[in-house]
Amino acid sequence: METPLCRLCGKKGESVNHIVCECKKLAQREYKNRHDNVAKVAHWKLCEKYHLKQTDKWYEHAPDSVSENDEVKLMWDVVEAKRPDIVIVNKQEEKVHAVPADKRIDEKENKRVEKYQELKRKIARMWNT
């Protein structure tokens, strides 16, 4: 009999998100590699948008911890606990945008918003935003 549960762990529905981000039977190293490759594409596209240094091909892109020009400061994996993955400081608008790790943030949005309030205040003080 077929079941909608994951064939690896048997605990949750076998969705793309479960296989890519949640299944306990898959190695965390593989999650991190996949996650970093997706984030690398986002970083590469942001470099293109803001005219920052980038390679011709996304898969050859090795994000610098900090890339900067007169318009933005783009940071890769430099915030406490390695979250969020990418931080964009828009110097002209004096705004900070963060790119989170995965869609599970939606499930716990209120908890995370509360958790990161102090970090938000620190960043705001650091960049006078």
What would you say this structure looks like, in words?
The model has no long low-confidence stretch (mean pLDDT 81). The chain is flat, with a radius of gyration of 17 Å. By secondary structure, it is an alpha+beta fold. It has a 4-stranded antiparallel β-sheet, with helices on one face. Helix content is 39%, strand content 14%. It has one domain (16-126). The protein has helices at residues 16-22, 28-49, 104-107, 109-115, 117-126, and strands at 66-68, 72-76, 86-90, 95-99.
Tag the structure with descriptive keywords:
129 residues; 4-stranded antiparallel β-sheet; alpha+beta
In short:
The protein starts with 15 loop residues before the first helix and ends with a helix. The protein has one domain (16-126).
Fold blueprint:
Elements lengths: L15 H7 L5 H22 L16 E3 L3 E5 L9 E5 L4 E5 L4 H4 L1 H7 L1 H10 L3
Antiparallel strand pairs: 1-2, 2-3, 3-4
How is the largest sheet built, in terms of strand order? 1-2-3-4
Q: Write down the overall mean pLDDT.
A: 81
Outline the low-pLDDT stretches.
Answer: none
> How many structural domains does the protein architecture include?
1
Question: In angstroms, what is the radius of gyration?
Answer: 17 Å
Order of helices and strands: HHEEEEHHH
Strand-pairing-aware structural class: alpha+beta
How does the overall form come out from the CA principal axes?
A: flat
Number of strands: 4
Total helical elements: 5
